[in-house]
Amino acid sequence: MTIEPDTKNWTWVLERRCDECGFDSSATPYEEVPGLVRENARAWPAVLQRADVAERPDDATWSALEYAAHVRDVFRRFDTRLALMLEEDAPEFEDWDQDRTAVEENYAAQDPDVVARELVAAAERVAADFERVPAELRGREGLRSDGSRFTVDTLARYFVHDPAHHLWDVTR
């Protein structure tokens, strides 16, 4: 089963609450992001122990295992982007096709125990890295390949919606 690629521009989450999952990045202070990441990561190992973890609920939706592998990679990807923003002036982020990655990395066949360990480790790394950024550097900028401009602050708040939304996806 092939999943329809998500082509939505999710940057709107910086302006208002997500009607689907209820998370409100626009009202989330930067200082809360590391704790939210860690809290989110603590929920995934239980999800990955479910008997149906690799089953897709329908033809258009990833399995919980696929979502978890994606979230692990989101943690890794945004940690890399944060590092670039702190090391370079206004770097342009490499384009990331999350749907192609899911196929190429065969998310559907990954070991749930390995994904759980890697997800928790990646979450801790990115949480700690966001936590270490002093307030005076949170205005540093980075650019997504589509031209969207982020500061470290907006990147953190944009990013934290993704794992929150996907946890909602697998627990609703």
User: How many helical elements?
Assistant: 5
SS class: mainly alpha
Task: Note the overall shape.
Answer: globular
Low-confidence stretches: none
Distance between the amino and carboxyl termini? 22 Å
Give the spatial strand order of the biggest sheet.
Answer: 1-2
Number of E strands: 2
Strand content bin = under 5%
> Quaternary state, please?
single chain
Percent helix among the residues? 40-55%
Secondary-structure element pattern, one letter each: HHHHEEH
What keywords describe this structure?
5 helices; 2 strands; 51% helix; two-stranded antiparallel sheet; 172 residues; mainly alpha
Summarize the structure in words.
This protein has 172 residues and is mainly alpha-helical. Helix content is 51%, strand content 3%. The chain contains five helices and two strands. It has a two-stranded antiparallel sheet with strand order 1-2. Strand 1 (141-143) and strand 2 (149-151) form a beta hairpin.
Short overview:
With 172 residues, the chain is mainly α. The chain is 51% helix and 3% strand.
Helix and strand topology:
Blueprint (H helix, E strand, L loop, with lengths): L32 H15 L16 H24 L10 H7 L7 H21 L8 E3 L5 E3 H20 L1
Antiparallel strand pairs: 1-2
Helix pairs in contact: 1-4, 1-5, 2-4, 2-5
